[in-house]
Amino acid sequence: MLTITAIPAFNDNYIWCLANTDSGKALIVDPGQADPVRAHLRQHNLTLDTILVTHHHPDHVGGVNALVSDVPGCRITGPATSPFKGVTEPVHPGDEVVWDAITFQVLGVPGHTLDHIAYFSESKVDGHPVLFCGDTLFVCGCGRLFEGTPAQMRQSLDTLRKLPDDAKVYCAHEYTLANLTFARHWLPDDDNLREFEEKCRTLRDNGKATVPSILEDEKRLNPFLRWDDPAVIAAAREYGADTGLPSNSEDDVFAAVRHGKDHF
Fold this sequence. Notes:
By secondary structure, the protein is α/β, with parallel strands linked by helices. The protein has a domain at 2-177 and 210-215: Metallo-beta-lactamase, Chain A, CATH 3.60.15.10. Helix content is 35%, strand content 27%. It contains 9 helices and 14 strands. A hairpin with a 2-residue loop joins strand 11 (137-138) and strand 12. 44% of the residues are buried.
């Protein structure tokens, strides 16, 4: 049986473990720290054989070298254009990555960083297609633009928005409540956001994660995926009246939302 489990790291990172519980093989996504991964593998009697990297930031690759020292020959798949030099299997958008019975499509999603990729599989785990999206898409949020432009990021998010509604979104951070605080500020009359915030606060109050999310919910709730939603457009225009930012195109609307979050 295939399972996906979150391994908490640092203050708010999630490292993802995709495991075949029958064979004991494990694939790890974005191991920013080695020790939490080692502990998880020991606890569940798993053997690491593959690491997927979405982008080069240290909180996503900081544990790779230590894990590889434990498992010489471990496959390290990551973006061919990455400044991170530990990748042994460089991939480009459009490539496929096969692990166990799962085939991942490599998606180019620049914006947060220029080398950022995501891994999507139509093969279902826990009844859902799988999306490992790193820091591109969060629950009701998206990654800051450290290297790319708003237009690049909106196009990357549009790539993800076109995936199947029932895909599970395995993002890399527990940023949900902060994202929802901003989303509620941006769209104060959105009752769906209010109800979702209440649900997520209850989860966090009980020590539970708010991820993964379902892509259909992100399309419905996440202001960073709603650049063509009249309510988000209206909010962008109001924000633009105060800041001088344009709101004439979908890229403009997205840029206004991102600017609003950055200065919130």
